[in-house]
Amino acid sequence: MMSKKMKKPVYEVNPHTMIILPLKTKSGVQSEVFELNDHRISSFTPLFLIKTSCQYFGSSYEGRREGTRFLTGVTHKPPIMIDPVSFTYAFPTTSAGRDDCIWIFPQHISEYYDSNYNCTTIRFNNKQKIKISVSFATFNNQMARVSMLHMKFSQKMRTVETEYPYSNLLFPPVSLAAENREPYNIEEVSDINDNFVDFSYSELPQQKKNKKNKEE
After folding, report:
1. 112 in helix, strand or coil?
2. Which of 141, 155, 160, 189 is within CB 3.0–4.6 Å of 127 for a Cys-Cys bond?
């Protein structure tokens, strides 16, 4: 008989990860993960998944944040590069420690646009659409930050490749993972309601206030 309890497997971020949403349950905050061809629930928080994934790829979460600060100067809600080999980037929608923080992997975004009431709708490369309670301005700013991080890191790699010609054997082409990689084998998904996830707040603050006043 085993004396130790079997440890729960921890989801590992990979090049197919699109978004990690916080899932509030009676036992606490868990994670809802959308991949290009998969959808799963993890019993761990989004931040825990991000931290352990950084470790899987040879760094600490704090180290990745410090790397972003060094390259870009961004310290508030910084994007991070989880895996430099596959160019897997992610950014938080709020301060990472908050329970409502969402982690987004921009390399899989085909477009995003402003929705009503300070919300943004994201359309991924596999046609999946997710609406989140983040203003378009905030989301656009985070996208700009991750683009800057990619640019700065790419410049460093180009410098290494120029000064040490044989080192380019150690690095993939300087581009986002989704650009030069072979296309994913994804079945075409029609744009139907089943392919849309509304993760924005169900009721606006003013609506909740009016509802409370009526009840009183």
Report:
1. strand
2. 189
pTM reported for the whole predicted model: 0.76
The set of long-range contacts for 186-195, using a CB threshold of 8 Å and a minimum separation of 24, is 186/36, 186/37, 186/125, 186/126, 188/127, 189/126, 189/127, 189/128, 190/127, 191/127, 191/129, 195/127, 195/128, 195/129
- 56 exposed, middle or buried (CB, 10 Å; 0-12, 13-18, 19+)? middle
Question: What is the rounded CA–CA span in Å between residue 51 and residue 64?
Answer: 10
Task: Return d(Cα 59, Cα 47) in angstroms, integer.
Answer: 15
- DSSP state, residue 85: T
Residue 202: both structure tokens together: 């169900």
**178: its two tokens:** 């989704």
